[in-house]
Write a structure and sequence with these properties.
Blueprint (H helix, E strand, L loop, with lengths): L10 E4 L5 H11 L5 E4 L1 H17 L3 E8 L3 H11 L6 E5 L2 H10 L5 E5 L7 H6 L6 H15 L3 E3 L5 H8 L4 E4 L18 H6 L4 E4 L1 H4 L4 H13 L2
Parallel strand pairs: 1-2, 1-8, 2-3, 3-4, 4-5, 5-6, 6-7, 7-8
Helix pairs in contact: 3-4, 4-6, 6-7
Length: 232
């Protein structure tokens, strides 16, 4: 796995909140217990991109979970624009044309992550969407395509991480949502692991949202997750 010097960088806190003011308050409450934040559609479309740029200027790492997927030129130019925000990660859907365009547009150290199959999908969901392959096989196929195209990392369920690592090798990142502490509600996630299980599966970064954002003491929960990933 790629070397990650600060163990706090392994935890990415998902700021799935309705507005920037709420996100600012949460970041302040967490303090130095976390260094890495994810901004997706909900906050991104509520002035969250400007907030991500401010976080980067404050020394925080940011993950823009925008899951880009469009014609090649649109993706390439969109990635080029995002590259100016100081973000660390940006997601695109793992379709070959989309991934090739994203690699062409990346700049300023931005790393492109390919989303293989959403962690809310199981085999029945994939079949309903028209895919002939079960989820595990689809993840492996798309991971191989991402590796060949030069994508920096893969977003997948922790359950598929071992298979993905065998495909992409040791140099590329594996980032997993759907991580829940052992006593947390699974909510709408169907393919999940605890932080310790994710670490043992060779995961580089885990994404955790509601167990932190909905906690009475989000700082303590963040510290607990980092400790769980680093413990014996």
């Amino acid at each position: 796995m790629p070397d990650i010097a600060d163990p706090r960088d392994r935890l990415i806190v998902a700021l799935d909140l309705p507005d920037v003011a709420s996100a600012e308050r949460l970041v302040e409450r967490i303090g130095d217990a976390a260094t890495f934040y994810k901004i997706g559609y909900r906050l991104g479309y509520a002035d969250g991109l400007a907030f991500a740029e401010r976080l980067a200027k404050q020394g925080k790492k940011t993950f823009l979970d925008l899951k880009l997927h469009d014609i090649g030129n649109t993706v390439e130019e969109g990635v080029r624009s995002v590259s100016g925000l100081g973000a660390t990660f940006l997601t695109v859907h793992a379709y070959p044309q989309t991934m090739r365009a994203a690699v062409k547009g990346r700049a300023n150290g931005l790393r492109i992550l390919a989303v293989t199959v959403l962690t809310s999908y199981d085999d029945a969901d994939a079949q309903e969407a028209g895919y002939a392959l079960p989820v595990a096989e689809l993840v492996v196929r798309r991971s191989g395509q991402a590796r060949d195209i030069g994508i920096d990392g893969i977003v997948c369920s922790a359950i598929e991480a071992g298979a993905v690592r065998r495909v992409v090798g040791s140099e590329r990142l594996i980032v997993t949502p759907g991580i829940r502490p052992a006593d947390a509600d699974l909510s709408d996630q169907k393919r999940v692991m605890t932080p310790r299980q994710a670490r043992n599966a060779g995961i580089d970064h885990v994404v955790v949202g509601r167990p932190i954002t909905g906690a009475d003491d989000p700082r303590a929960v963040a510290q607990g997750i980092v400790a769980e990933m680093e413990g014996p």
